[in-house]
Amino acid sequence: MPLIPNAIVNEQINLTNIQYNALRRDNGYVYLKSGVKGIILIHRTGDTYAAFERNCPFQPYDDCALVSMDQSGFFMSDSCCQSVFDLNGYVTGGPSPYPLRRYNTALTGNLLYITN
């Protein structure tokens, strides 16, 4: 089983920026153009955030191996292989044997740092 390629992630975002308005509510999310195929950044509650690689771990070298948030906002999925992941990045359905790659998040004031 091929592994997701590595990419250096060292992002700093200002949460007061209008493009991150969705992160002001619990379980709000945005897509970032970092990582291998992008990052899904989710605001949990309070000062807690989670950042996941969008490259699906099932067949990561397939062009269509891209995880997105479901319209319901309750889970993430890859429309290519049909893998489904909960909001903690764990597999809940489909062929993926691995959870999503998770990146570190740290909040300092209004600045959120995302690193690996």
Automatic annotation (TrEMBL):
Residues 19-114 form the Rieske domain. It comes from the Bacteria. SUPFAM superfamilies: ISP domain. GO terms for molecular function: 2 iron, 2 sulfur cluster binding; metal ion binding. Keywords: 2Fe-2S, Iron, Iron-sulfur, Metal-binding. The keyword tRNA processing does not apply. InterPro entries: Rieske_2Fe-2S (IPR017941), Rieske_2Fe-2S_sf (IPR036922). This is Rieske domain-containing protein. It comes from Adhaeribacter swui.
